[in-house]
Amino acid sequence: MFRHSSRLALLLFAASLGLAGPGAASASPQAPARAPTSAPWDARAAEHLLNRAAFGATGVEVDAAIALGREAFLARLFTGTGRPRPAFELSQPERPSREERRAMSEEERRRTYQRLRRADNEQLLSYTGWWFDGMVSDEHPLRERMVLFWHGFFTSSAREVKNGEAMIRQNQLFRAHALGSYAELLHAIVRDPAMLVYLNNTKNTRAAPNENLARELMELFSLGEGHYTEQDVKEAARALTGYTQLDANFVFNRRQHDGGTKTVLGVTGELDADKLVDILLAQDACPRWVAGKLLEHFEGRVPPAPRVERYAKVLRAANWRIDAFLGTLFDDPEFYSPEVVGQRIVGPVEFMVANCRRLEVLPPGGVLAAGASLLGQQVFGPPNVKGWDGGRAWITTSTFLQRGNIAGMLLGVTRLEDIFKEDPDLFGAEDSTMEPAMDDESMGGDEPMEPAPGPAGSTGTEGGRKPRQDLGGGRGVSAGLRLMEAPRWRRELDLRGRLKACGAGLDAELVDQLGKDLLAVELSPEARQALVEYLRAERTARDIAEGRLLDQRAYGEAILRQLAHLILSLPEAQLN
Amino acid sequence: MTLDRRQLLGAAGLLAGQALLAPRAQGAVRLSASPLFTSEVPRTLVLLQLAGGNDGLSTVVPYADDAYGRARRATRIETRDLLKLDDYRGLHPSLPRLKALHDAGKLAIVEGAGYPTPIRSHFKSYEVWHTADLRGRGAGEGWVGKLVGAAWPENRDPNLVLHIGKNVPYSLYSLTHPAASFATPTGYKWAGDVASRAALERGGEVCEHGEQELEREPANNLEYLRKVLRDGQASSETIRKAAVRYRTKTAYPDDELAQALRDVAALSVGQIGSRVFSVELSGFDTHSDQKNRHDALMARLDAALPTFLADLAGTEAGRQTVVVAFSEFGRRVRENGSGGTDHGVAGPMFVAGEAVRGGLYGKHPSLENLDDGDLIHTTDFRSVYATLIQSWFGVDAQRVLGAKYPLLPLFKA
């Protein structure tokens, strides 16, 4: 196993090591009780758990986990390090009272609400940064992972909700219930202001029912399609009438609630939201649906049907507790089988967070959020109510290349403007890579070619494609990415020091060491060979003897960062 | 029935043969970019997904039906504002340019398109539209994936099927021919100077070792990733080159759909080897405040699609391009009381292009004879697919779709 000393990694894990006594960990009241297990406990198992239950780990952290012992490590996984970060201080805006509003001129009113909206957006952005900081920290990675899971499961999007405070409160709801009871969370979600807005339940009234929440509650949040009828949707919508919100607070509007008799899934009564949720929880389809989603997330594959069946029973027996469910899963030898380990395509948020952890850099959380957004996972902005598809859908021809670019930015070897701007030589003229047949005439349509625009990205004639300064991710994304260029946080990055400390020196050793430290899976022999050749060529060009690269202070670090960039751009870097 | 492809290869002759042997990135460009083949520009299909469930009754409005006025209050469009197609139906007032296309005989409207036992879930209904199979994803590949596998089995050009936008739709899902995709061409590349890009491309080159494994369905995620990386590297430069060099003839608005169609035009004219393009206009899930939202969406559609067709007009690529717009379902006939409409069933499809025989197809669904408050579809949407597969691409539709559907005379003889 890889060992090296790293100031940052030690800082990150110092507390957990210091309090590492098994007694201290098992004394925690919240760790679920677990039966003895035949699941393995070695470096492979520890790293697998750190990849899947946390956000990846360096060799130091894997070593620390093994030293801690399986029981203590798992206990700590479920309770966190016990060193909480400062909570996010949610500030509530001072909204003008009805009288004040009336006293305002139209212009004053417009300006007041514009200011409130801007402050609300700003607050959501800083909360996003705070959340990502939490994912990178060792405070409670499994909880943060579950918050992300619930955000994808019970989706709401700030684009539709248009209220940052409500989005933050929803996220805090996920945080409070992250490893707790799914049943409690389901009861809470039908009262969640952001959800009520997102799925139009604020418009769902006795006189004019709106089915949106009722349908998604059954289709996506509890049962899955095919386990209810259209009539059930209509009746469930009636049960949810009057559940609304005001200024990000839940309101039950009794006058809008339909108190009449409804029949949902064969149960008849004067159903309200809680009774409806209890009916859903009583269905056999419900634990199957939730267990299937959890298994898919943690195992990275569509679970085989018998496995879903088994874990549906686990969930029911655990009285819907997620910590107990995961405790069983992490004790399951099948979770450590070759079909599971290293076979999962990591999502963009994970890609960002895990690479920071492995590189031992701590960029501002907003930077990570922007990177994840560019790669297809904008938190607080899921593509639709189903959340992110995940798995292979994360990787397209373009997001793959973009992952490499973002990894390059984390390492400081790729500049933002390199991603933004089009190559000047693409515009024609001195391009020598093309066949003569592919000349300007055949490319330019009916009009003659214009002189090539400059590299500043001022492309095109009128009606041409405008350069996208926001990279398609919105203003916050661009701002976050620009922060990535700020050098301050990258000072922690010291690949040369790390490799030196563990005694690597020869080209192959450097490749192996860095590959091991940055990747969750083994480097393929072909890729390894190509990387060794790359190092050799770079060294030879500079006339540096093999084994002496780390003696070069600046150049050594620069070339190792290039090497790390190549490694993080490989197919292997997308798996864990 | 891959006759047209064989004919093309025959005409292309030696060069085509060379292209097949050449590395893929350049191969595709050489074959199609040569002016020798301008008369052999291959037929292409542009799929335009109106995501979220477009309200058909507000798109092709049955104004003469009293039931329309009874069912619709907040979302009702006044008769005098409609762009009348005949004495029964009119197009949404924000679609004047589509109306002009219709009048010029270049826009076909297939009314009441849907399928039996409709599903009102966005995702499941999309799966039906994307697989052309009522089982959805359980049926395997997407319908375009199946088409590509049947029509061009040996064509490994990574640009063969292209999605421009964020989320690749399931219709393009193929075990053997995965679609390439990008949101904006500029960001579709390894960033950096020549040296660092060359180094990065080595990472892709080491993926070349398993040529055999890349020809079949990826056995695991690592194989899948290798294939995608190789395709991405091969397609990135071709696409950016064509996109950046293209000069439009019409002014496209600064709108996501319009800009995506602008790229489709660039890549069609640039002849980079693409046969199917996919783009999306989303926001149609109008449970509330439908009037404003739907009006704006119709205006965006009208600003984008006709601009694209006008841009291609008169070019060989234009003659060889057909656009099909569809949505996963229509909305309920009766409004929901939030000024919107809930998930419904059948709706109209648009088929547009130089080769299209414009006019009305199918039948407007009855507003009286409803199924539990929903329209009953009059044309199976798979008839449109079958027509595209058979009449446009010259491929046996039954083989692709697994069943026989009546063809529609959507194309000029």
State the gist of this model:
Chain A has a two-stranded antiparallel sheet with strand order 1-2. Chain A has a two-stranded antiparallel sheet with strand order 3-4. By secondary structure, chain A is an all-alpha fold. Chain A has 28 helices and four strands.
Please explain how this structure is put together:
The complex is a heterodimer of chains A (576) and B (413). Chain A has 28 helices and 4 strands. In chain A, helix 1 packs parallel to helix 4 and helix 20 crosses helix 24. The longest helix of chain A is centred in the N-terminal third of the chain and has 31 residues. The radius of gyration of chain A is 27 Å and the shape is globular. With 413 residues, chain B is α/β, with parallel strands linked by helices. Chain B has one domain: Alkaline Phosphatase, subunit A. In chain B, strands 1, 5, 6, 7, 8, 9, 10, 11 and 12 form a 9-stranded mixed β-sheet that branches. In chain B, a hairpin with a 5-residue loop joins strand 3 and strand 4. Classes of the chains: A mainly alpha (576), B alpha/beta (413). The interface between A and B is large, with 93 and 89 residues.
Number of helices of chain B: 14
Q: Low-confidence runs of chain B (pLDDT<50, min 5 residues)?
A: 1-39
Give the largest interface.
A-B, 93 and 89 residues
- Distance between the terminal alpha carbons of chain B, to the nearest Å? 19 Å
Could you tell me the strand content of chain B as a percent range? 5-15%
The share of residues in helices of chain B is: 25-40%
Strand segment tally of chain B: 12
CATH class type of chain B: Alpha Beta
Spatial extent as radius of gyration of chain B: 22 Å
